[in-house]
Design goal:
Number of domains: 1
Strand content: 35-45%
CATH superfamily: 2,3-Dihydroxybiphenyl 1,2-Dioxygenase, domain 1
Largest sheet: 4 strands, mixed
CATH topology: 2,3-Dihydroxybiphenyl 1,2-Dioxygenase, domain 1
Low-confidence stretches: none
Helix content: 10-25%
Distance between the termini: 23 Å
Mean pLDDT: 96
Structural class: alpha/beta
Shape: globular
CATH architecture: Roll
Strand order of the largest sheet: 1-4-3-2
């Protein structure tokens, strides 16, 4: 039996603002934007990902901005950070763990990270992998 994570619902306060952030600033593809009564669903997929995120109204009881640690794995963290900052996303510096503490700059395999947040404060982590 396969269990595939295909959609993560991200709680936001303003659906249009979130849609613009993820599509225009982050470069995610908008797969669906539909309304049915009081329910609005916007499904958005990061480039190359098999898992999408969904923002909307009437789809979650989680507080906007309450998610932290959503992770995007990239093969080149410097290029990903440059692309996102060039699109207007406030991405933190590239850091790594060393002796249990954060250090500036890239680390070894699986040990390079950078963070950013959406307009509601939902936290994202970029992680570089040697073989994504």
């Amino acid at each position: 039996m396969d269990y595939r994570l295909e959609v993560v619902v991200v709680p936001v306060s303003d659906v249009d603002r979130a849609k613009a952030f993820y599509s225009e600033r982050c470069g995610f593809a908008v797969d669906l934007d539909t309304t049915n009564g009081g329910l609005r669903v916007v499904q958005i997929t990061p480039p190359g990902s098999a898992c999408s995120i969904t923002v909307g109204s009437g789809i979650t009881t989680s507080e906007p901005g309450s998610y932290d640690g959503l992770q995007l794995v990239v093969t080149d963290i410097e290029a990903a950070r440059t692309e996102l900052t060039g699109r207007g996303v406030d991405v933190g510096p590239i850091r790594h763990f060393e002796n249990g503490e954060w250090r500036e700059g890239k680390g070894g395999p699986w040990n390079s990270f950078a963070t950013f947040a959406d307009p509601d404060g939902n936290g994202w982590i970029l992680q570089e992998t040697p073989n994504a």
